[in-house]
Design brief:
64% helix; transcription regulation; WH-like_DNA-bd_sf; alpha+beta; DNA-binding transcription factor activity; DNA-binding; WH_DNA-bd_sf; Arc Repressor Mutant, subunit A
């Protein structure tokens, strides 16, 4: 193994992740989805319902629902049932760290 080969593996790993990161950035590129993620990040896990998120984000419930469905399908957000309501949580650690880099904070 030469000195140049030692750097090939990390670079190959980053290149392999590029499609995944591109999809994540595409999802974050929508203002509504980014606003919902910021709200989830601030509130903490499992604390906000669909209607709470829609109201705080200033969007219709249908708009929030469509955005959260995409984020859930991508594995960035999870949903769990709490009685008759669904509650949402930001579960993608990469996105969590990225929101911190953007200045995101937590309520607690």
């Amino acid at each position: 193994m030469t000195g140049g080969d030692a750097h090939a593996d990390p670079l190959a790993h980053l290149c392999a992740l590029s499609d995944d990161w591109a999809e994540t950035f595409r999802l974050l590129g929508d203002p509504t989805r980014l606003r919902l993620l910021t709200l989830l990040h601030y509130a903490g896990p499992g604390t906000l319902s669909m209607s709470e998120l829609a109201e705080r984000a200033g969007v219709r419930t249908a708009t929030a629902s469509a955005a959260l469905r995409l984020l859930t399908t991508a594995g960035i957000v999870t949903a769990h049932r709490d009685g008759r309501m669904m509650r949402y949580a930001l579960t993608d650690e990469r996105v969590h760290r990225l929101l911190h880099h953007l200045g995101g904070t937590h309520a607690h």
